[in-house]
Amino acid sequence: MEPTPTADLDRTNDKVYDCTTSVVRAVMSLSQGVQQSKADQYLELVRRVGIELRALLSSVDVLVEILPISAHREVEMAHKVLSKDMAELVSAMKLAQSYSATTLDAEYRKGMLSAAHILAMDAKNLLDVIDSIRIRYPYVDSQICQRQSNVVNRTRESTPENRIRSSQSGEQFLRRSQSTERQGTTFRQSQSGDLLHRMGQSVDRSLPVS
Description:
This protein is an all-alpha fold and 210 residues long. It has helices spanning 15-35, 42-61, 69-98, 105-136, 138-158, 161-181, 191-206, and strands spanning 6-7, 187-188. The chain contains seven helices and two strands; from the N terminus they run E-H-H-H-H-H-H-E-H. Helix 1 (15-35) runs antiparallel to helix 4.
């Protein structure tokens, strides 16, 4: 399953975009650990996905008050799907741990990889939902950009430079990738989408088809 192209919106200080990329990266790390049968690391890898997913959902929650009521339902549905995905990933992890030393190890690892990939795809879908609202309602887009800019400015004023350096470098990485993408077409494959594509290929190659 291929990720959809992402709208070419202003990603400067875009918390939802940033968090989506973090979720996908966490899922890719989990995927690598599962492929290498590192059962003792499964819990920590899943915990990291959960932390990044919680940050993504929180970044969406703070935007709800400026979204039109007519758009609340689609955001809520995408939100609920991710909560269900996380529960299914935890269940798949427990099975993979239980059968890690048996002949069924490969089968249950494959199930865990599948659950993780679905979660990453649905995280990307939540980003797409927010993007579609921004496109349909330009005033929402302008408010989101302004709000995120204000939040970052307040953070920079109240936080010592050495404590925000890592987050700034992450923002700069996204900006650099975005500036390159803006030289292309109106729609482009997002960083998270590209990571999803590579992760899907990796999952397909990782384990034999049963």
